[in-house]
From TrEMBL:
Transmembrane segments: none annotated. It comes from the Bacteria. This is DNA-binding transcriptional LysR family regulator. It comes from Nesterenkonia aurantiaca. The lineage of its organism: Bacteria, Bacillati, Actinomycetota, Actinomycetes, Micrococcales. The keyword Transcription applies.
Length: 295
């Protein structure tokens, strides 16, 4: 039994006239009649009473018409839904992201994406770069937003946004009034740093700042960059953070630029292979927002 046969039968059952049903289906009457006979043979039941004057449904035909119409309606809904999936307008996107993406990049991207594809469900997972890389390789995420490329082996990456790395100092620090400092001036300062294992990308962007110098003494290593700001405000040390994060610094934290203007880069990451249409659409929106923020 084929969907085509069901469509043919439903047309005849609703028109109760082979000629009108054939015109509705844009076929000739002969193949239509042949397909109805074939369907009756396959079912082992007569569906229609045919006379020279009229066509009527048998009892079995009336029940079969109702069921066939339900099947065709479901098939049409499925086809419509799959069409939405193929166009990126339906389905799911599983997105991992580093916390610093949630300040500017991610909110704008989500808003624009939901306007463009309201039928897509977003599953958002705040994760470190290393956690995202692992889940991307295992197929548990569709897309990730990472800091730096270190640790993103076996993944495809695409730069989305670059921003300056800023020095965050306690408000009463001797350098607090300076608008710019150099790395040499920081090598004796206790540093609120980040664990290279969990945050390999960002840690690898910080280390070259002190190339050829002694690396500052690490007071502690933490994952959440927001917590780093709190520790600086408490006077426990200094830290280095992306400019977008420093926009939320407490008033008791002073900010300065670094000589040489070192930058940190945020990347979209995804596994080798084909992204779903919805994930491709999200990536396109992410690129657009990254360009807006860059400009």
């Amino acid at each position: 039994m084929e969907l085509r046969q069901l469509r043919y039968f439903v047309a005849v059952a609703e028109e109760l006239h082979f000629g009108r049903a054939a015109r509705r289906l844009h076929i000739s009457q002969s193949p239509l009649s042949a397909q109805i006979q074939k369907l009756e043979h396959e079912l082992g039941h007569k569906l229609l009473n045919r006379t020279t004057r009229a066509v009527t449904l048998t009892g079995f035909g009336r029940d079969f018409h109702r069921r066939a119409a339900e099947v065709l309606h479901g098939a049409d809904e499925l086809a419509s839904g799959l069409g939405g999936v193929s166009e990126g307008q339906a389905g799911h996107v599983r997105l991992g992201f580093v916390s610093s993406a949630s300040y500017a990049l991610l909110p704008r991207t989500i808003r624009m994406f939901r306007d463009a594809a309201p039928g897509v469900t977003l599953h958002l997972e705040p994760l470190t770069s290393s956690e995202q890389a692992e889940q991307l390789r295992e197929g548990r995420l569709d897309l990730g937003i990472l800091r730096g490329q270190e640790g993103a082996t076996e993944l495809r990456t695409e730069e989305i946004l670059a921003e300056e790395i800023m020095v965050c100092l306690p408000g009463d620090h001797a350098l607090a009034e300076r608008s710019e400092v150099c790395a040499q001036e920081l090598i004796q300062e206790p540093l609120i740093f980040f664990p290279p294992r969990e945050m390999p990308g960002y840690a690898s962007e910080i280390q070259p700042i002190f190339h050829g110098l002694n690396f500052p003494p690490v007071y502690t290593r933490i994952i959440q960059q927001e917590t780093a700001l709190g520790f600086v405000a408490a006077g426990l040390g200094i830290t280095l953070l992306p400019e977008s994060v420093t926009a939320f610094a407490p008033s008791t934290v002073s900010l300065a630029r670094l000589s040489g203007r070192p930058r940190t880069r945020m990347y979209a990451a995804f596994a080798q292979g084909q992204l779903s249409p919805a994930a491709q659409l999200f990536l396109r929106v992410l690129r657009d927002v990254g360009q807006e923020l860059h400009s």
